[in-house]
Amino acid sequence: MSTTSTVDRAFEAALYADTDAALDTGASLLAADPAADVELARRGREFVAGAWRRGWQPADVVRFVRRELEDEHLRLLARLVVEEHEQEHEQGPEAGKRQPPPGPRWAAQLDEVRELAAHPTRADRFSHATAALELYRLLLRLPTLEPLDRPQSTGGAQNSPHPESRMLSRIRALLAKAEATGFPEEAEALSAKAQELMARHSIDEALIAARAHSKNAPGACRIGVEPPYETAKAVLLDAVARANRCEAVWNEDLGFSTVVGFEADLEAVELLHTSLLVQATTALTKAEAAQRKGGRKRTKTFRQSFLAAYAHRIGDRLAAVAEAQVAEAEAESAGTGGAGAPEQDLLPVLAARDVAVREQVTRMFPDTVTTRVRGVSDLAGWRQGAEAADRAQVGARPRLPS
């Protein structure tokens, strides 16, 4: 019996019949034929390439497999992703199936996948075959996503991720220190400096693109919204996105939000959202400790209400900061004259970028719905979450009021 025939029989038995008995039959066929290993891996790489064609990216698939399966499946997936990438690179773009070619954001995701692939597995043949078939079942049924990669504009700067600039490195370092320090005054100073750098970085990017008459369009990235309390976390991400002139669309079933915006703003959303999640988790831990001291047990409703209030209040704060920054930028623009006058007014530039982001969201997601935050029933959790949000250090960016 040929190795191809063995794999075909195993797939026919296991991939298209979602039962344990069918899975055992397919795994037994594969385990009994060591010569089928090469063909099994080749088919796995094809499933991975199929995920790319349906709009998935390495981080998306890793996140989904981690959520649905076990560590063994994750390590197997990581090896297949690395092998598929290396095979496509060796064959050249004319033989590739992923268009356009992956850029720095994709490359950064691959670096993380390589770390997963480096972990060895010690499963017996039957267990390995079972894990492969379970993984392939999942990959086979992945839905089609909105593609994030797109051809780049030939006019002006490209809207693609670039090697991390010195400015972004400073912002990342400041936020890391703000999260780690135990002194509120130090955290406030560090976060305030990060906020200043983020705002300047965004404004500079917008003005440079406008002066160069760049025709690049907004891009998009996906950010995981992990359980538990996904709704509150999605609301927090939406608040951060809007403050940074981006828009977020949450896919609850698949566990991520797609954030649409210009690249400098997308980078800021990723940095600030991560920082605020760390601050929220730290504040929640302290609040629960205080609850235990007071004789009250930790409850799911307390945590859910805390995080919902935190997200809601952060949204209010970010909106207020954004409005104040726009007013300040407008005043500075009006007060500048003579030889020092800017080549391009800031506010019309920001307005045009806001419109471009909204149009891109409409193209990518023509059918979206709003959702309510449910399950907020603990008054103490809500109050303490709002208070924690008031203490949090936020970084916002100019955004025109609607």
Give a structural overview.
With 402 residues, the chain is mainly α. The chain is 64% helix and 4% strand. It has 14 helices and 3 strands. It has helices at residues 3-14, 20-31, 37-53, 58-68, 71-91, 104-117, 125-140, 166-180, 184-211, 230-243, 263-293, 300-335, 346-364, 379-391; strands at residues 219-224, 247-251, 256-261. Strands 1-3-2 form a 3-stranded antiparallel beta sheet. A hairpin with a 4-residue loop joins strand 2 (247-251) and strand 3. Helix 4 (58-68) packs antiparallel against helix 5, helix 5 (71-91) packs across helix 7 (125-140) and helix 10 runs parallel beside helix 12 (300-335). The longest helix is centred in the C-terminal third of the chain and has 36 residues, at 300-335. The N and C termini lie far apart (68 Å). The model is unreliable at 150-163, 338-343 and 395-402 (pLDDT under 50).
Residue runs with pLDDT of under 50 for 5 or more positions: 150-163, 338-343, 395-402
Q: How would a crystallographer describe the biggest sheet?
A: 3 strands, antiparallel
Q: Looking at the structure, what is the overall shape?
A: globular
Kindly report the average pLDDT value: 80
Radius of gyration: 24 Å
Number of H/I helices: 14
Helical residue percent band:
55-70%
Number of strands: 3
